[in-house]
């Protein structure tokens, strides 16, 4: 049995841990204690459930794609996290952490964001719970996700552009950590993925488990059995771990984590941390990462800003080594193709991140690794309104 | 006894405190680092040599920029060792290396410590490695006679201070404020409490204070609070950056500044 067993002392096997400046050690301890205390607290659970239902719009539907299923020759379901308020699964975790921050007496939230979805989710809970909110976002991402920046500002959050390093998610996390080091006493760092030091990988996973728990119930209702495969994209890895977690002990359910292959592994322009990276420490955790021969972190590329990250959650590293989850890549080109398919066949505009998972289902079908009788669930982690400009550019060039 | 401990004992006898000067290896160019270090060593009691990292989360803008310059100039961990050997030919001043964990881990912790000892390095500071994750570093550092200098922050609880001192050798690094490295106009008062706490618990390990210290007045203030050493980084790195295209001026500016800082460590 896997569920409930990890992390042990903050680690998933050799992965995870707390590789942070001493200033933060006490804050991490307080956070872990608070999380463990409230996790089982009836009042906390009730409140979380209340906001997930009445505010976020949970449970989200499990939708059967009839036209696309015909086209691909499989039974394809989408777990519609794109319908969560804010347009992505990110709000599940943001509500949980904001409720926790309130109980810990913090008055200020900070967060990093790549695609802007987590920044937006944090801005939303900042407004909802009256917490001062500041978001760090790379220059390059601000440029490609302008719509989300404006949405964050409308919710009252301040967005700080980050111009250092590769000017994407990795650098936004660096700046958020520097802010936290400085303002640790009144500030909660609302980390948006299952990365960073313990307890974040555990806590964010737990707040995202709702995705897999609902899916399990819904697919049993619809099909009377468990699915044959689950597919989700992996950047830091929060939607995928949330989707996979409650299926980890169901050995007949194949689990596929899809990384951003960018322009292909050989091009060195990708974000395929698990598929092409090696072990190391980044942003407080020991996991796989993309680094050069001297241990410097490499810049990454993906058409999907939310996957454009050199690290990955430590639990994914553990599940990869264990062989329980199969990690693979799809390229930018395959992703754009899948994006168009979903628009044209189902009338759904997926986030470019989630379109990676969809592209992989097409690959599985093309290679006859799934067939007509197989039931596949894709975690459609976000909606693609934010990506329209990128798509427009990609389709016209 | 290590070269670092000897330095602190000698200074104690002559009524001085240690002036620890930080520079980034390879900034602005690897070929300049030995002469910069040599110039600084005329005044500094310990040289702290940074290994550049792409993602320095504990550093402010000044040192981030230095790391970027060094990496652009092609600086590698291997070259850091060559530079240390070079410096060691010229001076006996203890050299402490400050580097983020990933490049060290990637190089191999055992191999790193062995190399560091071979080329004449004396100590190691890893700002993103708390003691809980440091067993391997402490073990191989000890085996090779390298001192392990851990950091203590204003948020570190009392019981943790004791444990951090127990795995530190040479000196302990007290972070004077909540924040990243970088020169500040005034220094915070928190250092005093930290110093007192360390001295009470472990009178045998000298506390040195860093972060934000940029002026002789700051040095005097910190010493009056009971510190046995002061660490100045960003203010020195800023001088290097200002004169990065005129090495001669850079060296004389560094000499002048370091002379003032060293003078401030001498009790009247």
What does this structure look like?
The complex is a heterodimer of chains A (397) and B (268). Chain A is an alpha/beta fold and 397 residues long. Chain A has helices at residues 22-39, 42-56, 66-72, 90-103, 117-128, 139-144, 146-154, 169-183, 200-223, 238-244, 273-276, 314-322, 332-346, 352-366, 388-396; strands at residues 11-12, 15-16, 62-64, 75-80, 108-113, 132-138, 158-162, 187-189, 229-233, 254-260, 278-282, 285-289, 326-330, 375-380. In chain A, the strands form 4 sheets. In chain A, strands 3-4-14-9-10-13 form a 6-stranded mixed β-sheet, with helices on both faces. A 4-stranded parallel β-sheet of chain A has the order 7-6-5-8, with helices on both faces. A two-stranded antiparallel ribbon of chain A has the order 1-2. In chain A, β9 (229-233), α10 (238-244) and β10 form a beta-alpha-beta unit. In chain A, α5 packs parallel to α7, α9 (200-223) crosses α10 (238-244) and α13 (332-346) crosses α14 (352-366). Chain A is globular. The relative contact order of chain A is 0.16. Chain B is an alpha/beta fold and 268 residues long. Chain B has one domain (3-263): TIM Barrel (Alpha-Beta Barrel). In chain B, 49% of the residues lie in helices and 14% in strands. Chain B contains 12 helices and 9 strands. Chain B has helices at 3-13, 33-41, 61-72, 77-90, 101-107, 109-118, 135-143, 158-167, 190-201, 216-224, 234-242, 247-264; strands at 18-24, 46-51, 95-99, 123-125, 147-148, 151-152, 172-175, 207-210, 229-232. In chain B, α6 (109-118) packs parallel to α7 and α11 (234-242) packs antiparallel against α12 (247-264). The mean pLDDT of chain B is 96. The chains are: A alpha/beta (397), B alpha/beta (268). The A-B interface holds A 17-27, 164-165, 170-171, 174, 177-178, 181-185, 280-284, 289, 291, 293-297 and B 53-58, 60, 64, 68, 71, 76-78, 101-107, 127-130, 132-133, 150-157, 160, 164, 175, 178-180.
């Amino acid at each position: 049995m896997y569920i409930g067993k990890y992390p042990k002392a903050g680690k998933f096997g050799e992965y995870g841990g707390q590789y942070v400046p001493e200033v933060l050690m006490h804050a991490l301890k307080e956070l872990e204690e608070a999380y463990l205390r409230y996790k089982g607290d009836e009042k906390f659970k009730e409140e979380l459930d209340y906001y997930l239902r009445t505010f976020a719009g949970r449970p989200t539907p499990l939708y059967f794609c009839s036209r696309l299923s015909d086209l691909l020759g499989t039974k394809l379901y989408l777990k519609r996290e794109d319908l969560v308020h804010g347009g992505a699964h990110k709000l599940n975790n943001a509500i949980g952490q904001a409720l926790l921050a309130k109980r810990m007496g913090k008055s200020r939230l900070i967060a990093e964001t790549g695609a802007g979805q987590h920044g937006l989710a944090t801005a939303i809970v900042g407004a909802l719970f009256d917490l001062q909110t500041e978001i760090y976002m790379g220059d390059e991402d601000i440029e490609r996700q302008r719509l989300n920046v404006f949405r964050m500002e409308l919710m009252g959050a301040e967005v700080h552009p980050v111009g250092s390093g590769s000017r994407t998610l990795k650098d936004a996390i660096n700046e958020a950590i520097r802010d936290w080091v400085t303002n640790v006493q009144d500030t909660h760092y609302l980390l948006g993925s299952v990365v960073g030091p313990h307890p974040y990988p555990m806590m964010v996973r737990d707040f995202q488990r709702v995705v897999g728990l609902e899916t399990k119930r819904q697919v049993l209702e619809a099909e009377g059995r468990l699915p044959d495969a689950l597919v989700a994209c992996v950047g830091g890895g929060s939607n995928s771990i949330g989707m996979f977690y409650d299926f980890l002990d169901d050995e007949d359910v194949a689990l596929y984590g899809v990384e951003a292959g960018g322009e292909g592994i050989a091009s060195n322009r990708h974000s395929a941390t698990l598929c092409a990276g090696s072990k190391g420490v980044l942003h407080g955790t020991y996991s796989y990462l993309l680094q050069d021969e001297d241990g410097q972190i490499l810049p990454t590329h993906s058409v999907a800003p939310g996957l454009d990250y050199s690290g990955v959650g430590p639990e994914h590293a553990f599940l990869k080594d264990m062989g329980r989850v199969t990690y693979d890549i799809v390229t930018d080109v395959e992703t754009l193709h899948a994006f168009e398919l979903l628009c044209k066949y189902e009338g759904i505009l997926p986030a470019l991140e989630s379109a990676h998972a969809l592209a992989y289902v097409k690959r599985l079908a093309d290679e006859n690794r799934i067939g007509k009788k197989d039931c596949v669930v894709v975690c459609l982690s976000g909606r693609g309104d934010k990506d329209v400009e990128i798509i427009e550019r990609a389709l016209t060039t | 006894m290590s070269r670092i401990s000897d330095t602190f004992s000698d200074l104690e006898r002559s009524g001085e405190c240690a002036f620890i000067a930080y520079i980034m290896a390879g900034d602005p160019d690897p070929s300049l680092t030995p002469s910069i270090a040599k110039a600084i060593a005329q005044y500094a009691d310990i040289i702290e040599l940074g290994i550049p990292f792409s993602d320095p989360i504990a550093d402010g803008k000044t040192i981030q920029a230095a790391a970027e310059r060094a990496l652009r100039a092609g600086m590698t961990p291997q070259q850091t060792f060559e530079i240390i050997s070079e410096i060691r030919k010229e001076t006996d001043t203890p050299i402490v290396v400050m580097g983020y964990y990933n490049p060290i881990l990637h190089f191999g912790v055992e191999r790193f410590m062995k190399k560091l000892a071979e080329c004449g390095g004396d100590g190691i500071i890893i700002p993103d490695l708390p003691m809980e994750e440091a067993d391997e570093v402490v073990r191989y550092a000890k085996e090779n006679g390298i001192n392990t200098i851990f950091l203590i922050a204003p948020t570190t609880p009392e019981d943790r201070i004791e444990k951090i001192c127990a795995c530190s050798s040479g000196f302990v690094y007290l972070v004077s404020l909540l924040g990243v490295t970088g020169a500040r106009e005034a220094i915070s008062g928190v250092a005093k409490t930290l110093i007192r706490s360390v001295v009470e618990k472990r009178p045998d390990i000298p506390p040195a204070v860093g972060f934000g210290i940029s002026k002789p007045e700051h040095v005097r203030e910190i010493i009056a609070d009971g510190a046995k050493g002061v660490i100045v980084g960003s203010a020195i790195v800023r001088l290097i950056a200002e004169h990065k295209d005129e090495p001669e001026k850079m060296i004389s500016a560094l000499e002048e500044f370091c002379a003032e800082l060293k003078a401030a460590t001498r009790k009247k």
